[in-house]
Fold this protein.
Amino acid sequence: MSNHILEPLFNPRSIAIFGASNRENSVGGQVLQNVLKSGYEGTVLPINPKHEELLGLKAFPDLKATETTPDLAVIATPAPTVPNILQQCGQSGVRSAVILTAGFREVGNAGKRLEQQVLDIAHTYGIRFIGPNCVGIMSPHIGLNATFSRNQGIPGNIALVSQSGAICTAILDWAEANSIGFSRVISTGIAADTDFGEVLDYLVQDTKTDSILLYIEGLHESRNFMSALRKASRVKPVIAIKAGRHAAGSKAAMSHTGALVGMDDVFDAALRRAGVVRVLTTTQLFDAARILTSRRRAHGGRLAIITNAGGPGVLATDLAADRHIEMAELSQQTLDRLNEVLPATWPKANPIDIIGDAGPDRYRQALEICLEAPEIDGVLVVLTPQAMTDPHTVAEAMVQLDPKKPLITCWMGESLVESSRDLFSKHHIPTYTSPEAAIEAFSYLATHHANQKLLRQTAEAMPLEETPDVERAQMIIEGALQERRKVLTEMESKALLSAFRIPITPTMTAHSAQEALLLASELGFPVVLKVHSQEISHKSDVGGVKLNLKTAQEVRSAYNEILENVKRFRPEAKIDGVSVQPMAMLPHTRELMIGVLRDDVFGPVISFGGGGTAVEVFRDRAVSLPPLNQKLAEDLIAQTKVARMLKQFRNFPEADVETLKQVLCRVSEMVCELPWIEEMDINPLMLGSDGVRAVDARVVVRSFVESHRYSHMAIHPYPAHYAKDWQLTDGTLVHIRPIRPEDAELEREFVNSLSEQAKLFRFGQTFKQISASMLERFTQIDYDTEMAFIALIRNGKEVEIGVVRYIIQPDGRSCEFGLAIADEWQGRGVGHKLMSELMAAAKERGLQHMIGEVRSDNYPMLKLMESLEFSIRNHPEDPAIRLVERQVSRG
């Protein structure tokens, strides 16, 4: 409805600098110098009671003496003075601040108390601030450099957000030397108030920003971060670098999963699901930004290499293999076309060696053919300056083309190719000095494309006939917690799996060798015996497992051996018996493992890999954040080495991978619906050519109270529980459900079919066709900070007749809404029903107020608002607008 709440912070018309000084080596002095040197045209108010003038500007003893209300306060005074200064700002109406000062939580308990005092004051007056303990912010387009860095940012289209002030200044120094410009530079410091999530939310709509660079050291709250990151990544390339990749990732855990998963694995999985490209160095950070903000995006990862020398082509091909880039396999049609323009001696393969005497025409013709080939997603053109080749004329031929696919150039050498590189840069064609750098650049495009596909995946609910028995699963967990147990027994763990339709081997407990024999006879030979003890996590480690027992005597002997082994290795452990289960006899079995671990930042994580007793030796596993769907499960499987064993090899037919993907999706549902699960191992999971069985399972639970549904998840699942059917008075059946990314075409047809007046009422403007970016924005939502319901009817095909949505405001307590109904369906109760469903969802989410803007001539909408008990008042700044508001729940 209005500008972003952080707009005054990054685009202030006036700033007050507390602690301003004329001393060069002071923080306040450096900030004042930077603001003046950077060409800021807004009002600058230096505040220092010891001076009447600073660097040619009138200085003031305090904020009140300025007799004005600046948009932004920059605070560079000692930590104990900050609360009083913020109090002044609040009383004077200042709503944005940058606190450069150190001396808060990073110095211990006293600093934490001081920080809390600052936060309390800020919340009282509605002040949003960056910091404390930060370098500051830059908005080079308006000449604002409110930092104490000695670098002046060049205007550009890249936003840099860094938790480290030192890294921020180092990147600025490197960027200045390399003529790299910025739209925003934001040093978050310890982010006591404004964190990554809100900064990203601002950068999404910032028209000056085309790509976003993140330097991350740690996160405090994953949900806001992931929501904002996924939203940003959908519309702008986001590249991240994270410090501490090799830090100890997880505490000692009872499960194999806990021993295998490290924090960096999880962080990497989170970035992939958010559509983000991760790099390891600051140089790669800018290389990735350059290629991802070039004119063309990759629509796949298949690369073709055109070269005038065999050596560089082979080298580039090797590097592509190292970076897991697929070399495009040339179709016969492409080969035929290349044969027509290339010498007979060319190798008829990719890389495409067009021979050392290649001139501009041969380069251009080969490139045009590759750009038109459907089996090629991007082209790398390599040139080595040879006697028969003029690098610059070839470059001129390249820039005359208008490629629809990514084109990367690598003119090898220095002086002979310098003018060519300048020409490529002038025409915004990415150019590199070595095949290594060029291949790495394409890898960023390919990674971005692959991760964007993951970003767009939405987990659907299970089919009705496979709906899990969540209530039964909850009762199992509650029973254990009431007994003050964290670890479920094997039978309880398997019952939990069974409740979610995961195939298990039946298990029964024996308390004597004779009873084990009877159970084995009942279940059918061969059987497996395992020690049953809440105190033993890994049964094989204490000799507590006996497999493939085919006779009564073997069962009796195995029972006694298990007790003796456990007594020898774990004499203190309490034994509750010995479990008996049939030996899993699936044909052509592979042993796998599926696990769940709760990460401190991102919550539940799903792990998959090879299983069995040697799982920690081979450490073949991959992790993913739930929720999963079939495509995400497939991606998780593909990341492991064991994936190759699932295909046909030797006398083994292909494994039943479709059923495996279903099991992974059901495990995902478990962790979505059961926030009490802390750890889980299904090991081994026996997968054959025609089925799957969970042979052993171990689940660790904890007490957990959700603030709202799915609050334990980093990524909000698709809220299928909101879907319902509703009938109009004339009998028309309407289906209402949350919107999905796959609804893009439905949404396009709906919006384009609205009358000019309906578009004006809903969007404040008229247009013929909805833009692709707007369509993406409407259909790809995170269901946490935003919710949208569509109303559908069946008329030979699904037709959208209405849509309603809310977006949570930065205060976290209120939301603004929008509603649109197809013209022919207005006045039939559809709008009232959609608004009622939206208000119910907002209440379940814990929101307190719903607000909106309605044109004063939109009489049907104003009448609907009255019927829904919204208050209606005039807009304070625009008489053509009415503000409508309703309380949906009490805080």
User: Anything to note?
Assistant: The two ends are 23 Å apart (CA to CA). The chain has 28 helices and 38 strands. Residues 435-455 form the longest helix (21 residues).
